DNA sequence: CACCGTACTATACACTGTACGTTAGGAGCA
DNA sequence: TGCTCCTAACGTACAGTGTATAGTACGGTG
């Protein structure tokens, strides 16, 4: 039987199954077939195992989601240490965005669940450390962290969502026609700016534009 | 049979069923039981009708989601016309946030689908009009609109999600213990700022903090 | 009245997550 | 070695889901 080790029960796998293997297989399936098409039965089948075998390692589907999310967060690089703090903040935000773009399922994994897990905490630690080192007080650092995080999350999720929509020709066609059916009298600005709106939905420039707005506002509050 | 009227086919309802009634019933169910527990069979049952009856008015579940979203967007007030443009922008963002808080399902309805529908266009028109009137060029207005929208969406969605988590005692307890199990040596800032982080997750002050950062950055780019 | 389009029904299918009870095989001890 | 416990994994089953397909009955129009 498994011995307790540092207070944690190390289960004795009898077969090739393990929590880490399940997480990696789940991640593969999410990236191959999309987060929506992901199912416990799918990953169990991929592992050649009954659906209920997964419940030995995860208490339910959400628990597996959390594990996959934390696994992905572990791929984030460390904060560059030799740079002015605005550049450090920019680097953290950009690398989170990049990770979300490389693993689109991360957007949905981050959206619906609270943050937990060691890797996730490590990321928060990096950003909070930069802000504290820059001299911001506790409350401002926490507020800024939340603001930056929700901006990156919202902005990049939106970008991923729109990119997916653009790939579906049927949905994209319906979106175009519904856009073009708007009367130029009732919606002058929307109709006039339609090309710009389409062009500014996503992309590095759009992301940096918003990030620069936030950082510019933040630098006005730079402590001493 | 129904006659075509202004190019739109007006179907002849035989019973009390109608697209608007379905949307209102769906909205009621979403707010009562949560967006996740919502189902087509649920709203059909509420209306005393078979599940397939809804497919006469909506092509699928997502189509119904879009209709509910646009219905909610129609509740947004018009932009105040007699105010400096930063106050107008603030008002638009705040009223969208308020609507999302009053109707938590709106967060999920906005997150997963592209924007379409007349009421949604009306909201975009309001914000874009303010930005154009303030003198911003087309590209900057579009970029700013996208930035503000994604900030409001991400920030308020996060707030709603965390508030829901806090109401579930089981999930909340697990979150607390996972937070407290973090070593103060590995995560000094997270542990030190834990109370601030908990306090700054949501609330008007947190929202306004980020919004003010954005607006401060934007005012640095005010045209002439 | 006859007819036809259509609002709605009934049935069915392929799925989902997961609760419950069972089986089989490794580990520890007599 | 043989006994016992623990537990990883299995099998079955259930209550749901969205929706494809075929059928039914009713209202407006000829």
TrEMBL record, chains A, B:
The keyword Hydrolase does not apply. InterPro entries: Homeodomain-like_sf, HTH-type_TetR-like_transc_reg, HTH_TetR, Repressor_TetR_C, Tet_transcr_reg_TetR, Tet_transcr_reg_TetR-rel_C_sf. Coiled coil: none annotated. SUPFAM superfamilies: Homeodomain-like, Tetracyclin repressor-like, C-terminal domain. Residues 39-58 bind DNA. Keywords: DNA-binding, Repressor, Transcription, Transcription regulation. It comes from the Bacteria. Pfam families: TetR_C_1 (PF02909), TetR_N (PF00440). Residues 16-76 form the HTH tetR-type domain. The keyword DNA-binding applies. This is TetR family transcriptional regulator. It comes from Kribbella pratensis.
